[in-house]
Design a protein that fits this description.
Layout: E1 4-11, E2 13-14, E3 20-25, E4 28-32, E5 37-38, E6 46-50, H1 54-58, E7 62-67, H2 73-76, H3 79-82, E8 91-93, H4 95-107, E9 115-116, E10 124-126, E11 129-136, E12 143-150, E13 153-158, H5 175-182, E14 188-192, H6 209-218, E15 223-226, H7 232-244, E16 248-252, H8 254-265, E17 290-294, H9 304-309, E18 323-326, H10 335-347, E19 351-353, H11 369-379, E20 383-387, E21 389-390, H12 391-403, E22 418-423, E23 426-432, E24 438-441, E25 447-448, H13 450-462, E26 464-471, E27 478-487, H14 491-508, H15 518-537, E28 542-549
Parallel strand pairs: 2-21, 4-7, 7-8, 8-9, 13-14, 14-20, 15-17, 15-18, 16-17, 18-19, 26-28
Antiparallel strand pairs: 1-3, 1-22, 3-4, 5-6, 6-24, 10-11, 11-12, 12-13, 22-23, 24-25, 26-27
Length: 550
Amino acid sequence: MNETVSIIPLGGVGDVTRNMYLYEYGEFVLIVDCGLGFADETMTGVDLLLPDISYLLSSKKKIVGMLLTHGHEDHIGALPFILPQLPSIPIFASPLTAAFANEKLKEFKLNNRVVSVPFDSAEKTLGPFSATFIRVTHSVPDTAHIFLRTPVGNFYHGSDFKFDLTPYDKKPSELQRIVEYAKKGVVCLLSDCLRSEVEGSTPSELSLGESFEKEMQACKGRFIVTTYSSNISRLNQAIKIGERLNRKVCFVGRSLMKAKGVASRIGYMNLARGQEISIDKIRQYKPQEVLLIVAGSQGQQNSALTRIAYGEHSDITLNENDVVVFSADSIPGNEIAINALIDEIARKGTKVIYSGLADSFHVSGHGASNELMLLASLTRPSYFLPIGGTFRQMVAYRGLIEKLGYAKDRVLLVENGQEIQFNRGKALLGKKLPLKTVYVDEITGEEVEHFVVRDRQKLSKDGIAIVMVEISRENGRIVGTPDVVARGIPPSDVQIFRLKLTDALQTVFRERRGDSGWFHAKKRIGEISERLMFSALNREPLILPIVVEV
């Protein structure tokens, strides 16, 4: 009889994004989360990063279902790309998470649907696994932790959370339920560790209200708020303050309009009658009567806020009486774009409030050290697996657990792809999957091979050199001198390269050899060109050799 449950993180360990975890028992697999990551500026032409599911596709195991913890992109964003590759499986999530996920699936014209599970529902049985959703607070409502019963013990999947005792929606974390389920015993706690290096506790969402109201009341122009579209509590708080100050609210940007529509449909956002106005009506009101909630807090190139900042928006122009509030932290990799956007807004004479300048307009959705230790104390597991953070944050989390009296080896610090086997109360490392980074092209939405990304990186950094060489069909020797067409390389360097290449090729191709056919000649010319470019010019451009037999 099999007595082993394995956990395999495909993403989310040592990495904040691409959260996807496999729970295995015998031939059965349960998936938790299906998130994406965001490309950085070095990944030219790439927009998104996905978990590598090669193991799932090649394995003979049966996927019994998928559970989603909350509605952020790094936990549900990969659904439209991953689900078409998998057999039809049941997917469960809390009401708002399911609504966000289903909206995304409809947008991609997929027939898959996520089943909404209220927090007071009975546990869901999926093959040998039984799952219960427990409400916790985070920067998106309806975030869930998962208590997972298996044939070899219970696991607590504690994804992104904080313990906000005064949440804006008045739905605090279900601490009592955590305690009740933990009494059944927990083999391993998978815990958010993103803010493990931060002492104390994360401030409440409700603490932002006073700052918003004070700044909005003092603003003589339009008050503009940009935040994550999924932060429904933040949006509701701004809307309510706007209502008290007699400001009409206008949502600007596709992602925000979609989020507002989803939240409104299921009763998570309620605007006062007549408070919302469309963008073509804002000129009918005085600037001090308007609250704009605008998409683009991460400096996205074509976002509404970027177009407004650069004077490219047809309906909104900034002036010195307006105030723009960035009510969001920057996602790693977006700092350059966000700083450039803030500078451009400042050039308009508009007041800009952002994280770092004022901390009273944004609070994290992740718990700090006190909250992380509290969850560990409530669940009292045998083992801990820190997730959703960088490796240094995983190490810091281990330090917190040691403070609670646990031995260091009870905290499992692993990399993505590393299987952890739980058998008879012991944790052992199993197989290590050779995961790759899966790139998605921003235009086609299709996967981009690694060599394509590598070539784009070379092009953006060192340019391209097309090397055209004529070779005698009769004796395999070079005819004349190579022709070099380059882009992104200074002409003086091209001239040096051409001279050195001519000498090198004349030497190499002086005598006819048995491998002097077109394919081998092209390969050798490419290798020689790359070597010369680096040795003579310290450059690594993309080299395209073209061989013509004459």
